[in-house]
Amino acid sequence: MIPRLTRAGVRAVAHHLGALAQLLAACMAAPTLVAVASSEWEPAARYLLSSGLCLVVGAALRFAALEKPRLDRTQAIAVTGIAWVFLSLLAAVPLWLSGHFGGYFDALFECVSALTTTGVSLAQDLPHLSNADNTWRFALQLVGGLGFIVVALSLGLFGRRIDASLYTSEGRSERFIPQVAETARFIARTTLAIVVGAAVALGFLCLAAGMETGRAALHGVWLSIAAFATGGFAPMPSSVTYYHSFAIEIVLMVTMLLGALNFALLLGARRGRIDEIGRDSEVRTGAIWIAAMTALFTVAACGSATFSDTSTLLRQGTFTIISTLTTTGFQTLSTNQLMQVLPSGALLVLVLLMAVGGCAGSTAGGLKLHRLSIVAKSISVTCRKALVPESARMATEYHHFGRRTLDDNVSKEAMTVFVLFTATCALGALAGVAHGQDGLTAIVDSVAMTSNGGVFSGIVSCDMPASLEFVYLVQMLAGRLEFVTFAAIVIEIVATIVPHRRMPHGQRSASAPHAGGDRSRP
Length: 522
Description:
Blueprint: H1 7-27, H2 29-37, H3 41-62, H4 73-97, H5 104-115, H6 131-146, H7 148-154, H8 164-168, H9 180-208, H10 213-228, H11 246-259, H12 263-270, H13 274-279, H14 281-301, H15 310-325, H16 335-341, H17 344-356, H18 369-385, E1 397-399, E2 403-405, H19 408-434, H20 439-450, H21 466-480, H22 484-497
Antiparallel strand pairs: 1-2
Helix pairs in contact: 1-3, 1-4, 2-3, 2-6, 3-4, 4-5, 4-22, 5-6, 5-21, 6-10, 7-9, 9-10, 9-11, 10-11, 11-15, 14-15, 14-17, 14-18, 15-17, 18-19, 19-20, 19-21
């Protein structure tokens, strides 16, 4: 039987959504302060108005349950799933009022792209977007990369009585510190340390490149956030190409790789467990995968005009591979070079890198390297079982933060996500073809949306049809929530809204057992 939300459950969900709305209002302090510091009074007024709206809506929802309720698993999934849409609706208000978007739906798409760290922008006249609006776009990427729930837990927003379901429902399955709240705080502290360090380095490099101090500082912060959150937004339409700096590219590559690593691996490195990292199956799978894809990309790209010499191949090729495999989406190649000049074989390699993505428990999108490892091991086990007697028992072990045995539940979870990911990419590509795209373009954009990858064909713009925009919006949300949570919340909402059909008294269904057997509950 599909669980349904009761009235008490709806009130509990509303209470927690209200708390998250108030957290969003607090986040709007960042663009407000930047607006005041930059003497941008109109944006400052917009963000004050929007934060006030969030506070009012949040307070109203929290009154749905005066005492802070404890969530069960069904309610936790509802909070997580609804929050990503609900908070995007609120976050879009100041961007919509800026006049840089074709309408509210375009601003909503921008916010979903930011929160899911996809990185495609529908902003018009991006170079003249205010500092406050840019700060808001990047702040959303930071919060989205970590996850609303992780940020809320790290701040103690939900109190001490925390159910682990609230943490795992946002796509994070691993608790490398026993307490959920402590895990969330470690993630937040690590993110802050890396982002600040990268921002200082990038700020100095921008200053050395000739930017004025304030602008260099903002660009440093924005780029560091987008790199570690593997979000891919850039303050200029030409992305990283705008800076023409190899040093900036190096800092960004290091930051992107750190963002694509499992936070548990970062904790292990901090504790000096380097040997543990080397034995991890996800790390080994990633090393093999990256080496193989890099070799294929090099062979495919060598003959193109884009990479005509070794230095260009090493610089732009390496940056493109790292940006793609971390699902960041920063570009040093123009859209025309990517789709028209780059050989189709090299483009296919980038699509595969984007589809798999980074490590589990990181800010990166995609299927994740851990699932790739599990799927490969599951296929190997299935093939080996076909060669041995049925009575034989086989156990496959792997090392992932300790020695583990591959069981059916782990294999089923990985296979389920793999099938849902593939189906979502296929449906998105079909939608693109139905809207007039050619097959290759539709596949690239669909995989980018589903994996929250950020490398696009250029077709995704403010001029695309609203129906295709909606399809891509759903794909971004499904990919960020790792499909199972997204599917579960859709089923849960439908089951709650659709009235439960009761059979007339005394009538049994055709499938009910005969006399003498177990009877169904009324």
